[in-house]
Write a structure and sequence with these properties.
It contains eleven helices and 28 strands. With 516 residues, the protein is an alpha/beta fold. A hairpin with a 4-residue loop joins β21 and β22. The protein is globular, with a radius of gyration of 23 Å. It binds alpha-L-arabinofuranose.
């Protein structure tokens, strides 16, 4: 395989000279200005397949350990990765969800057909109170997406009142009758989901008008101020962003603009297997997921024109790898396995979100359990933590830390005459002077030696290293078997001439902790 030199990015204007050699990184810890919001490491739970029912929520009198029907093992696993937020109830499901069906006595709640996802009957046993109880067990922020596709302004406005009002009012009384005395104080509020498709097939112009109307009636109650997330574009729909940003009235109707981008190896009709893939498919997946950087960059440029102060966030509230469903599973349930390939993809996306943390204020992987790029899979009482789960765990160090700008020159990884940079990275420093460098080697066949210097620092002390990798590029964790992918300690690193010398194993994600 031929390698070429490439200067990939220059994040610090006027910093050091160009590179003579491949696989060099320079870190600039003193130039760090922006905080990486922990909300970038957020999640998404939808009434889809076995995400809620069988994932979070167990049957009445289930033998699976639970607290008020919420699975204990799932709560413990998610608390262990410091889950910062959870988006609910969809997705496309949100576009046909009528919240009043999901409150009150469970055996009196009406049922509905989940038309988007398998046409199954939704019994509404998991509704607003159950979701907020889950968030409280997880100690995370709820992110609720209101129904603008098939719901009315009145419905959305009353839902906000029900959640957040402490005034004497019909909705406050109803909430109290349902056992919740205090207002829930929900902050993150989605004003629609994918309104260009399953949320009503609207044009950008039509949605912009609707957004203004709905947003007016989503009120703040007491001290609680809503952070309204408008339905934003899919991938490269720059017209949508321009339309929502250019007009001040529209722009003032939201605080965050969503962006959805799924990585699909082939196309919608034939996405490819989650576990059985070629190196060509591995490569295409990485190549396609790197497009996230371009999409965020270009949407940010549009936002910068109208919001140079960066008061509005770009909220990547659906992202991840979308494969064909597991053979034999319900096609409407979107259940897929998760391999080392997905883990590397997650790491690349986190690096990209971190890089754009001045604009990207939240992101939510789709979906937490038993659906697309899940961090947890369950089968009755069994539970699996996927390779993607371990990336969330490894990257906890970046939560609310300061982004450390970097320059990198990477050799290329080439398949069928197409190339991508082999190394992808991100770095942050925390308040205790600890720097955390995360590195990904996208080449599944080759170990790569990397040299890393830290600008302005006379002495570097390695505190430790950790690694996620696997024997094969499609290594995955399976029910009833020992884990194939996990976090192990990593020590193929030394300091020489005040530089870190790292040997990055093929197909790996490495974390290095350095005291500066
Ligand atoms: O995540 C599955 C679906 O993908 C969501 O419901 C929808 O918003 C998107 O199209």
């Amino acid at each position: 395989m031929k390698t070429y030199s490439l200067v990939l990015c220059l994040l610090v204007a006027g910093a050091a000279d160009g590179f003579a050699q491949d696989n060099q990184i320079i870190l600039y810890p003193d130039s760090g200005r922006h905080e990486i919001s922990r909300h970038i490491y957020g999640h998404f739970s939808e009434h889809l397949g076995r995400c809620i029912y069988g994932g979070f929520w167990v049957g009445e009198n289930s033998k699976i350990p639970n607290s008020g029907r919420i699975r204990t093992d799932v709560v413990e696993a998610l608390r262990d990765i410091d889950i910062p937020n959870l988006r609910w109830p969809g997705g496309c499901f949100a576009d046909e969800y009528h919240w009043m069906d999901g409150i009150g006595l469970r055996d009196k709640r009406p049922t509905m057909i989940n038309t988007h996802w398998g046409g199954v009957t939704e019994d509404n046993s998991f509704g607003t109170h159950e979701f907020l109880e889950l968030c409280s067990l997880l100690d995370c922020e709820p992110v609720i997406c209101g129904n603008m596709g098939s719901g009315t302004i009145r419905e959305m406005s009353q839902w906000v009142e029900y959640l957040n009002s402490d005034n004497v009012s019909p909705m406050t009384n109803l909430r109290k009758e349902n056992g919740q005395e205090q207002a829930f104080g929900v902050t993150y509020w989605g004003v629609g989901n994918e309104n260009w498709d399953c949320g009503g097939r609207m044009t950008a112009e039509y949605y912009a008008n609707e957004l203004r109307r709905y947003s007016v009636y989503c009120k703040n109650y007491g001290e609680n101020e809503l952070y309204k997330v408008a339905c934003g574009p899919s991938r490269d729909n720059y017209h949508w962003t321009e339309t929502l940003m250019k007009d001040p009235q529209t722009r003032n109707s939201f605080h965050g603009l969503s962006l959805h981008y799924y990585t699909i190896c082939h196309d919608w009709e034939k996405k490819g297997s989650a576990t059985d893939f070629t190196e060509g498919e591995w490569f295409t997946t990485m190549q396609k997921t790197l497009k996230m950087d371009e999409y965020i960059g270009k949407h940010s440029e549009i936002m910068n024109k109208y919001d140079p102060e960066k008061t509005k966030g770009l909220i990547v509230d659906e992202w991840g790898n979308w494969h064909d469903v597991e053979p034999g599973s319900n096609p409407g349930f979107l259940y897929q396995q998760n391999t080392l390939r997905d883990a590397l993809l997650a790491a690349v996306n986190f690096n990209i979100f971190n890089k754009h943390c001045d604009r990207v204020k939240m992101a939510n992987i789709a979906q937490t359990i038993n659906v697309l790029q899940s961090v947890i899979l369950t089968k009755e009482d069994q539970i699996i933590l996927t390779p993607t789960y371990y990336v969330f765990k490894l990257y906890k160090v970046h939560h609310d830390a300061i982004l450390v700008p970097h320059r990198i020159s990477s050799e290329l990884y080439t398949v069928d005459y197409q190339s991508i940079p082999a190394i992808h990275t991100s770095c942050s420093k925390d308040e205790n002077g600890m720097m955390h460098l995360t590195l990904t080697n996208l080449n599944p066949n080759k170990d790569i030696n990397v040299e890393c210097s830290v600008h302005g620092k006379e002495s570097l002390k390695i505190i430790g290293g950790e690694i996620i990798t696997g024997e094969e590029m499609n290594a995955f964790n399976d029910f009833g078997k020992p884990e194939s992918v996990n976090i192990a300690s990593f020590d193929d690193i030394e300091v020489e001439d005040n530089k870190l010398k790292i040997t990055l194993p093929a197909r790996s994600i490495v974390l290095i902790k350095v005291e500066i």
